[in-house]
Design goal:
By secondary structure, the chain is of the alpha/beta class. The chain is built from 10 helices and 10 strands. It has a 5-stranded parallel β-sheet, with helices on both faces. It has a 5-stranded mixed β-sheet with strand order 7-8-6-9-10, with helices on both faces. The structure holds magnesium ion (MG).
Length: about 300
């Protein structure tokens, strides 16, 4: 464990240094408050600190105050040491943010015991910080999983809805076009029934990766349900959305599936959001109607919403 000793009195400083080294600490020494503060501003500086109260430059309590204002997740353990042992001095040091106070001349065994307390507290802090980081990572993972479709890694319906609401309000505020493409694989039941659900899953995963390859980075591709997908296209008008859907239709048609001998196709509905005339639900309904008409028109085609 690293310790910083800051004391302007050479005798006291040498005594502290030799004792602490004997007790197994890795010691850094500062001869006044300014030097102490410079050391404490370095990265990887000692977190266990023994400060003399009265020092040229910056005094002990002032250094503690600065430390307390700037410290992040790894707090320092600070022992103020001084011959000024009246009760007011102790109260002042602790109020300034010191963790402990030792009066000169000190009893070495007592100082050793107090340093051990500081060491324990710092170890506990570090263990706590480590646990909090792990907890944060776990929370991030859970939050990602709650918004991800397990099979395809696409956005799930919940994540789509969150992004959709946000995108609609942005489109309304800045009067920007916004479109949706709704996609349903044709005769998908046939794959599952004939070749099993694993083959079906492979087809869905292939579709997901094709969709991700074809859209822009900020478009939202979600698995809407079984073999149905939806794409949220911000800053995109109907004609651009239709031409993307047509490109997707061709790519689907031309992609071989290794899991089964079928080539697969999909039907597409496309709709642009009507500013101030419809709600999110209305837009979803219109794009679904368009998809339904694509199915009725013989599948493997793109239909625009009315
Ligand atoms: Mg002094």
């Amino acid at each position: 464990m690293k310790v910083l000793i800051a004391d302007d009195d050479p005798t006291s400083r040498l005594l502290l240094e030799s004792l602490l080294k004997k007790w197994g600490y890795e010691v850094t020494v500062a001869r006044d408050g300014t030097e102490a503060w410079q050391i404490l501003c370095r990265t990887d500086h000692p977190l266990l600190v023994i400060l003399d109260w009265m020092m040229p430059g910056i005094e002990g309590p002032e250094i503690v105050g600065r430390l307390r204002q700037s410290e992040g997740s790894s707090p320092h353990y600070v022992i103020i040491i001084t011959s000024n042992d009246n009760e007011d001095a102790i109260v002042h040091a602790l109020n300034a943010g010191a963790d402990d106070f030792v009066a000169k001349p000190f009893n070495p065994s007592e100082l050793q015991a107090r340093l051990a307390v500081g060491f324990r507290v710092n170890q506990l802090h570090m263990a706590l910080v480590d646990k909090m980081q792990k907890l944060q990572q776990a929370t991030d993972t859970i939050s990602r999983l709650a918004r991800t479709d397990e099979l395809t890694d696409l956005h799930n319906r919940r994540s789509f809805n969150e992004n959709f609401t946000l995108a609609v309000s942005t489109a309304q505020r800045y009067n920007l076009p916004l479109s949706l493409i709704s996609i349903d694989l044709d005769h998908f039941k046939r794959v599952n029934d004939t070749y099993g659900h694993r083959a079906g899953d492979q087809v869905l995963q292939l579709c997901a990766s094709l969709l991700l390859e074809m859209v822009r980075g900020n478009d939202i591709v979600a698995r809407w349900g079984g073999e149905e997908f939806i794409i949220l296209l911000s800053h995109t008008d109907l004609s651009a959305a239709v031409s993307l859907a047509e490109r997707l239709r061709i790519v689907f048609e031309q992609s071989p599936v290794t899991a089964c001998p079928y080539s697969f196709t999909a039907s597409f509905g496309v709709a642009q959001f009507k500013q101030e005339l419809e709600t999110e639900e209305d837009l979803i309904r219109r794009v679904d109607d368009a998809l339904y008409r694509a199915k009725n028109q013989g599948r493997n085609c793109v239909v625009m919403a009315e």
